[in-house]
Write a structure and sequence with these properties.
mainly alpha, globular, 6 helices
Length: 151
Amino acid sequence: MRFSTRARYGLRAMVEFARHYERGEPVPLIKVAENQGISEGYLEQLMTSLRKGGLVRSVRGAQGGYLLSQGPDKITAWDIIRLVEGPLDLTECVNEDEQVLCDWSNTCVTRVLWQRVRDSLRDVLTQINLADLCDDAERIRRSKEADMYYI
């Protein structure tokens, strides 16, 4: 199982917005694209999903860009991934809305395993919010600075 670039880039973009949340200033997508090495066009596609899902709002104009619609501590990794990736359906018989799509679902010996994997993944992603990711990013930045050796 692998998350697509939509999930990875969506999370990285949202961390950029979270880092500017306290200032209350919209962040232009060009700035996010430059900071994260992501195509601006691709970011536009992601922003459509995130805006429609209510996680960001856009501000038009010369000083425009995007803002989080709520605090970074209120937006989880799960919220973001669900909006940009869609439902987390690991197999035909184990999907988010619990629809039975497989003829073997009532007798499948691995169905319980796939349910546990799905639930565990959701649990981890709902426990991590944007504020946590910003804290992690800051810790990484500081550790890289500490590793620098100047002559």
